[in-house]
Fold PDZ domain-containing protein.
Amino acid sequence: MEFLKLIGTFLIQPLLWLGILWTGVCYALRIRSDRRNFKIALNKDCFEIRHFIKKGILWGVSGSLISLIIGCYLPLKAIVLYEILAAVAVLCISRIDLSAVPLYILGILAVLRQPAILPVVLLLLGFNYLVKGRLTHGENAVWFTPQIKQNRRKRRLAVYRWSEFTVLPLMIYIPGTLMEKLFHFLPLIHFGEVHFSLLILPFFVGSAGRIRGEQIEARMQTVQKQNLVLAAGAFVLTISAWLLPHFGILWIMIMLAMAVGIHLYHYLQVNKNRAQYIEVSEGIRVIAIRPGTPAAKMSLNPGDVILTCNNQPVTNENQFYEALQLDSAYCHLKVKTMSGDLKITEGAIYNDSPYELGIVQFRKMN
């Protein structure tokens, strides 16, 4: 019964409901962007809320077990400040990932006012980056939202955005008896003369960004490696802060320098790369594949260029659909991949409707 009441304190926290509400906002923004760019919703599945709940529960249970065993604790003031800062980060996640920023701010304040909690903050940073690195693990290309932009030469190109986040339940200790006085049903744990209350902290983790000059799979692998490196660095610095607490400012500055350095390096690399998803004059660039359509079974990927359809060269939308109508039941494509390789793919067309093939391309200019 006490455990159910403890869960209840998590379910009434504003940060959790803000996260749930914002998944709906992100879904609506994605659908609106699709309809503005392509006149249709590319993927009506509300996978945002499914990922939010599934990944939140999975990592919340794992993190809570580790937290309780290790003995992670934060004072109530630090928790209140974290939730306020995390709420701001939630509102920004559709554009930029700031989910680790509240912990960096807590780390700097800990050095200045309460050095004893710095190892806990660094440990939470490491956990944040660990979960962040797994949020986009095995991401399906249909989960990325293409947006149509123009480069400096006025040529159209597709830029892909992703935004994955969750507010997971993380059990944590709170020193003192204040929480027990506010919520008398919360468990009170005694370690000698020190008293701790248990609280399920809404812990925000997110990952967001855009892709313009890399293949989606390669970009996400890079993101995962970067976050795992930062997670490992944070865990090492946690031990350093615990063994050598007098160098607290050094440990948090090293962590901050690692994060800034890795992101700056990636930013410079991205700007060095040429845009890959640009409109071509020879062939038809595949921008996206609608799930549940024949094209989804034809081994096509965003960025591929269709050179011929049913043995007919195609360079625009009209030629493509004329070639499709040469065979109302089957489709034969010659495709050039982003790596420059040629491949042949084919598949059946359902319901004698070539417009339901499911290949999304640059729309014809009015």
